[in-house]
Write a structure and sequence with these properties.
Distance between the termini: 58 Å
Mean pLDDT: 83
Strand content: under 5%
Largest sheet: none
Helix content: 55-70%
Radius of gyration: 29 Å
Length: 421
């Protein structure tokens, strides 16, 4: 979709150079988390342990009974392959019930009644997962990812709102960036170690990083003037640099890269969110010229708006507005009062602004309805009926307000075979 050479974006722009490409912000945020979770080996291993824990307990009813014996409130959940922001639901039970889950694993590993090959294998798996769970590195990773996913989850839900506009999206993204920048500090890293130490004390394990038992690898230099890199021998410093800093740096860089187009669109249209309060004529003229340039053809001969006329129309329109800055309300005011001929450039600019999509989450949820409508019991459903049932399922609020009796009468009259002369 986003390929600028041969993707859908490039093909549409070949037909119309004035088209705007706006990627789904909620999906872009998921890709940010995906980039961060795959930036280092320890992050990949962390989520593998989370998934392994769920798979182990859910694969057997006997293990699940032992799990429910110790864990009374939250239950472990699988990791979502697409909705990364929802992975907070998989981490939350482990974050606040680490000791209970460890006790369940210990009971399964010490159950001597499991003498079959499958039973012995279950005991071995439980012992291996329990040893990974009590690792201080895993506990620190658990605290870090829970804090990050909590912040990202709030941003993701806000970005999926139907009423969200470009300015609000940029503000929320900037708030997330500020949180990540503040979170990447020595003070917060010490707080993370304190919280991880509290979990370690509950488990009765050592609250410090274990020394690296592997031989330190010396990398070969290719030039004589290059000095050898000093290896990091301190495990705490190694975790801080190669895990904590690397994840946050990768997340910040990915946010800057994936939301750069949204920031460009925000700079172009931001002045239209403050029409009634514009006082600086030079700044307004500059914004109008930038918008005209963006809405012009490649040869510069055709443009959807005229910057000088747009600037004058905004100054005139301020007299009719009573501190109203909502673009949708202003467009409705122009249409209801039949002022399109007086403000044609403002009318076109507001229409383009209001049709720029901020998120496609609602459309993706509509596609997911097809799995509910067309299941294995309706495998031979026709296309027309599938479209009709999917429309009713998606627009269920409108469907609930319809009068069933009138629909039955209309259907009966349309299907009646008796012709009245």
């Amino acid at each position: 979709m986003r390929g600028y050479k041969s993707g859908v974006q490039a093909r549409i722009r070949n037909l119309n150079s004035r088209a705007f490409y706006v990627p789904c912000n909620a999906h872009s945020l998921n890709l940010v988390l995906n980039d961060s979770a795959n930036c280092c080996l320890d992050a990949v291993l962390f989520f593998d342990i989370i998934q392994e824990m769920y798979t182990f307990f859910s694969a057997s009813t006997q293990r699940w009974d032992v799990f429910r014996k110790y864990v009374k409130n939250l239950t472990v959940k699988p990791l979502s392959a697409t909705r990364w922001s929802s992975r907070i639901d998989a981490i939350r039970p482990i974050r606040f019930q680490t000791a209970e889950i460890y006790d369940a694993l210990e009971e399964i590993s010490e159950d001597t009644s499991l003498t079959s090959v499958t039973g012995v294998r279950s005991r071995s798996e439980a012992k291996g997962i329990a040893e990974k769970l009590i690792s201080f590195k895993f506990l620190c990773s658990l605290v870090i990812w829970y804090d990050l996913l909590c912040e990202i989850n709030v941003t993701s839900k806000l970005l999926q709102s139907i009423s969200l506009n470009i300015i609000e999206s940029i503000n929320q993204i900037n708030n997330t960036k500020i949180f990540l920048q503040k979170y990447r500090s020595d003070e917060n890293f010490e707080k993370i170690l304190t919280q991880a130490s509290y979990l370690a004390n509950e488990l009765g394990v050592q609250d410090s990083f274990s020394l690296n038992q592997f031989r330190t690898r010396r990398r070969k230099t290719h030039f004589d003037y290059e000095s050898r890199d000093t290896p990091i021998t301190d495990p705490k410093q190694n975790f801080k640099i190669n895990f904590f800093h690397q994840i946050l740096d990768n997340m910040l860089q990915s946010i800057n890269d994936r939301f750069i187009q949204l920031e460009d669109h925000s700079k172009l249209f931001s002045f239209l969110y403050n029409i009634s309060n514009v006082n600086n004529y030079e700044h307004l003229m500059k914004c109008c010229k930038d918008l005209q340039l963006a809405l012009s053809s490649n040869d510069g001969l055709n443009s959807d708006i005229n910057s000088v006329e747009l600037c004058e129309e905004i100054n005139t329109l301020q007299k009719y507005l009573q501190n109203e800055n909502d673009p949708k309300a202003i467009l409705q005011f122009i249409c209801e009062n039949k002022l399109i001929e007086l403000f044609p450039n403002v009318y076109v600019a507001l229409r383009i602004l209001l049709t720029l999509p901020v998120t496609a989450a609602s459309a993706e949820r509509s596609f997911s309805k097809l799995k509910i409508v067309k299941n294995y019991l309706r495998s031979q459903i026709s296309q027309d009926r599938l479209v009709g049932l999917a429309t009713i399922s998606i627009e269920n609020q409108i469907a609930n307000d319809l009068d069933i009796d009138d629909l039955v009468k209309d259907f009966a009259s349309a299907k009646a075979r008796k012709i009245h002369f």
